[in-house]
Amino acid sequence: MTDFGLNVYLPAEGKLVISTPRFDFDTFPPLGERLLQMLSATVIEKQWDADIHTWLVDFEGCKLLMKAEHYSETVWFECLDKVAAGEELHFLAGLFEKGF
Length: 100
Prior knowledge:
Elements: E1 5-10, E2 15-19, H1 28-38, E3 42-48, E4 52-59, E5 62-69, E6 74-79, H2 82-98
Antiparallel strand pairs: 1-2, 2-6, 3-4, 4-5, 5-6
Protein name: DUF3630 family protein
């Protein structure tokens, strides 16, 4: 069984929604760190609000937002620049589609 997989890929919107193990607001940070470590991505900045974590991450030179909303247990990536990050997001979609 895989921990991470693809739920929805929306290339025109520059979004990638993934499946993850269950989490809440307090347990997301270690889960997010583990996911980024598996992707060889790094955190540039972290922000959290009442119900959502928003992390700016670097994946192979491409800056993406990784967001996690704990009420719905939803994690997704958003491109900051849909044109420049399209190739990387497509690569990630393929990786998550296979699951890991």
